[in-house]
Amino acid sequence: MSPARRALILVAGIGALATAAFLLPLHAVPEAVASLGPAGPVVGVAVGASLLAALVPRTPISFACGLLFGAAVGTICAVATFVVAAVVTFAGGRLLGREFFVRWSERLAGRRLGRAWQRLDGWVTREGTLAVATVRSLPVAPYGLVGYAYGTSAVRTRHYLVGTIAAGLPSAVIYAVLGAAVAGGNPTGALTAVPTLVSLALVAALLLRARIRRPR
Fold this sequence. Notes:
Blueprint: H1 3-23, H2 29-36, H3 40-53, H4 58-69, H5 71-96, H6 98-109, H7 111-127, H8 129-137, H9 143-151, H10 157-183, H11 193-213
């Protein structure tokens, strides 16, 4: 299968998932989940991962996991959801291919963007897990889109997975717990500051590492 056809299939799949997410009757979700019984969390992870792959933001999905399944099960679902979505989107980017992405980005936006992407790709590849975690922790783009982009890069799979889990774990846990707290009538808004603090810590660690590695 040609790269262009793979790209067309990938875009069509994302579009279909996005359309399904838009048409999803949110008011009927709690009742539908309750009717599934023990299979509810499994279905919730599958639906949540699909929504992330369709470029839906991650925060409301993690929040919904806690809201629907409680603090303990909701946290497990939130973590499983973002991990599954990370694997799926990365695989989609790998299927698309790095050369195809660079070539078409240059055609659509000029060679400057292509060169910028190559420099960013080289930086992420050199810095490894810490760079992946730092980019993942910053709200620069939808969670799924970042996964597709990493798939087209030269970053190692293990660096991508470890960095993604390290960056995503705190916010997934926090927002799932918040969702459960809201469901129980005990909102704890102060917890929302934790993901921001984690992001700042990762950025600081990356800057410190760059300073230490800089030639004297």
